[in-house]
Amino acid sequence: MKLRYLSFGLLFLSLSAAAGGFQTGPQSARTLGIGGASVAYVRDLAAIYYNPGALAQMDSLNHFSLGGLTNLRTTSFLGNDSRRIAEQELQPLLGGYFYAAHPINDRVSVGLSVNTPFGFNTRWPSDWEGRSVVQQTRLNTVFVQPTAAIRLNDNFSMGAGLVYAYGRMSQQYALGQYDDRNVTATFKGSGSGLGFNVGLYGKTAETLSFGVSYRSPVTLKVKDGTASYSNVPALDAGRYPGTAKLRTELATPGALSVGMADNVTKKLLVTFDFTLSAWSRYDSLTFNIGDAPGFATRTAGLRYEDAMAFRVGGEYAYSDMISLRAGVSYDETPIRDEYISPDLPDGNKLGGALGVSVQFTPNLSADAGYQFEYVAERTSRVVQARANVSNVGGTYRTRVHTAALGLSYAF
Question: Are strands 268-277 and 218-230 parallel, antiparallel or unpaired?
Answer without folding.
Answer: unpaired
